[in-house]
Amino acid sequence: MGNEKRLLYAGFMAILAAGVGFAIRGGIFDNWGAEYGFTGGQLGAIGGAGFTGFCFGIVVGGVLADKLGYGKLVIAAFVLHVLSALVTFAASPTNKDAAYSCLVWGMFIFAYANGTLEAVANPLIATLFPQNRTHYLNILHASWPLGMIIGGIIGWVLDDKLQVGWKIQLSLYLVPTVIYGIMFLGQKMPKSEAAEKGLSMGDMFKDVGILGGLVVCFLLAIFFGNTLGLIMPGGTAKILGWVIGGGLLIAMGVLTKFSIGSFLLFFLFIAHALVGAVELGTDGWIQNITGAILSSQEGKFLFVFTSLVMFGLRFCAHFIEKKIGLSPVGILLVCAIIACVGLNLTSMANTFVMAMLALTVYGVGKTFFWPTMLAVASDRFPRTGAVAISFMGGIGMLSAGLVGSAGLGYAKDRFTGEDLAKTNIAVFESVKSKTPSAFLFFADATGVDGVKLGEAQAAKVAGKATPEQAQICASDIQGSRKTLVADSFIPAMMAILYLAILLYFKTIGGYKPVTISATPESAPAAAAPKA
């Protein structure tokens, strides 16, 4: 084509815009909590809307990409990025409920645009560089941590140093948005291998099948139940959520003529749900959590530092795969173990240096998860075109919102509230939130009111905290530590899954990419087997 590198860097800039916006939003959670009085659970729900919006953007975009064309999707994403800023900026401190709605929907639209762009960028790069997908998809997604670095620095300088309003901070993600729009303008884009071969939509969905549909529709059922719960009784909303999820699963069955789908892809979907929960869910909260343990400024600096580790390492995937000899699945297994260790080390950090060392370990662990998972799906399931990797991205983001972000918000409320109630029940009763936090099937938890927690933290920084405020801050720190320990169970489960997948490839002669003329389960040896 001749424009491969320009399209690579256009996709790079598009995901960079998403990373900048994500980091800035994560850094102003404390502003929102103090200004509007939101609980940890409500802030988690706002962050979660970002992930669920991404899911719909990438799933819908992935289904339409091969039929509608990448160019039209880029235009739609650009318009939605601008619209999301306008909706978010409409939030007013004079009406808490209306502000909450503006922030939720602003986050949802922002993420929908991000998802649409990934529905373009991931299959585009997989198609342009079929012989080295792991390397180039990692380069593409190096833009995510770079965006978080830029966004984190913006938050550190404008928020902590200059105390600029959060709306001005957030508006700066529109700069890379304009740049990616210009870079994509007028570019000729290829079709996926499946589209070039003329496969129908039903053919592209067959490897996903009923098994893959179960993972997607299960998460969508929870999402619709939670969303409908905002306008109707919770029990009725949950039932309707399951009805919608079941209906979508039946529709997928009809589309694929009730193909069972690939068991390997099913397990990859489950693994990527865990990836979304631990990587993006944690990224959305890590500034808040480490900021509570140390200080707000140190939390932002550590967030930027961890992102810098990821940015640098994502250019090393080629070396690890080709020189060290680890297959993509082997890389994922090692990273899951390292991430588990890193989260536990971070939970024990008492000093800035210890936190930096612990988060370096965690940063190394989470670096290769997302792009390498996409590379594995692209290598093994070319017949799905843009569908499988778009579904995988949607599953990861939906899980990040429903499990990662919301779950960490719930855990922080629960552990902080429990610690404060245990140490000083009178203080807990005076500052507890009026809105309980709920998460999946766990019992409701009562945390600390966001405004009162913000006041206690500000008093602590100023050296004017009362004994009661000092206790609130101490319990918040303990809640943050326990939240990180709970979070570490996710990469532990991922390691078990990756080990099982690695053993599976051992039984069929090793990991190797396949072509569209061969099924993943019976592919001819295209390269020497690797562990």
Characterization of this structure:
This protein has 531 residues and is mostly helical. It has a single domain, classed as Up-down Bundle (Growth Hormone, Chain: A), CATH 1.20.1250. The protein has helices at residues 4-27, 29-36, 40-68, 70-89, 96-128, 133-140, 143-161, 166-171, 174-184, 193-196, 201-205, 209-228, 234-255, 263-293, 296-313, 317-324, 328-347, 352-366, 369-380, 387-423, 425-431, 450-462, 467-487, 489-507, and strands at 437-439, 442-445. A two-stranded antiparallel sheet has the order 1-2. Strand 1 and strand 2 form a beta hairpin. Helix 12 (209-228) crosses helix 20, helix 17 (328-347) runs antiparallel to helix 18 (352-366) and helix 22 (450-462) crosses helix 23. It is globular. Mean pLDDT is 83; it is low at 518-531.
